[in-house]
User: Fold this.
Amino acid sequence: MAVWLGFDFFLAFLSGMKNFSLAFTFLLFLVFLGCREEEGCTYPNACNFNSDAIVDDGSCDFLTCAGCTDSEALNFDPTATVDDGSCEYDPPPTTADCVSSLSFDNYDYPIVAIGDQCWFAANLRTTVFGDGTIIPEETASNFPNLNSPARTSYNAATSTFNAQGYLYNGIAATTSQHGGLCPSGWHVPTELDWMELESYLVVAGHGKRMGEALKSESGWAQNGNGTDDYGFNGSGGGHAWPDGNTYSLNFYGTYWSSTSTSSGDVMQRTLSSGSNQLNRSEYWAVTGCSVRCLED
Assistant:
């Protein structure tokens, strides 16, 4: 009954209006009001997320509620609802008993202890294998044609070599012939070795910022320097790509493992100026990357 009364009232209202076009416009306005979708922030991870909003109005705020949300962290923020990866923890103890430096092929490498591991704190620059056999030096343009171990320097520039060492192809990184690339008692880290390092960094509170903790404090492009929390001194040596060119000096630091995949590629880790993470991927074996040695 109430519905019919309301409808009759509306008809009477329309009939009382002298201008039918005005009445029609008014009707459309009522329909628009009834169908209008609510606007607001539609991103669930935003500080001002509106669950009733249908249309995003560009008002999303991701900063005011961001912070460390882990109650076990040193800088836990009880008001934060979005974790920004800034949590800090008491680092686990380093138990490795490492020498401070090691001389190999006329170069003194600083050594750093991270967890239970002893790492070279500089990129490898050896011209010889562990047994003294010469590692062939090639131009980057010839790397794609090789099926044997080789080394090259970025753009054949002496200044770059002095800062970054050699780039070795994946064939050199994975070979055990002639004692491998590293001195006796040391080796190119395996995939499991890299994973052990990553596990330590996660426990130490660097889960979302492993790269930042390993990158050097200077030398990276676009203000992408790290905090170098352990003295690893990760640097952006770039890479020799399978198209015969070198790329990404000071933008990327690519480090071989000695682990090959079933397809013949080689696992590696990448530090970059544009990321705080330590990224894992596989490269073609003819690619040229930096190498860090790890104690046996």
User: Anything to note?
Assistant: The chain has six helices and 17 strands. Residues 202 and 210 are 8 Å apart (CA to CA).
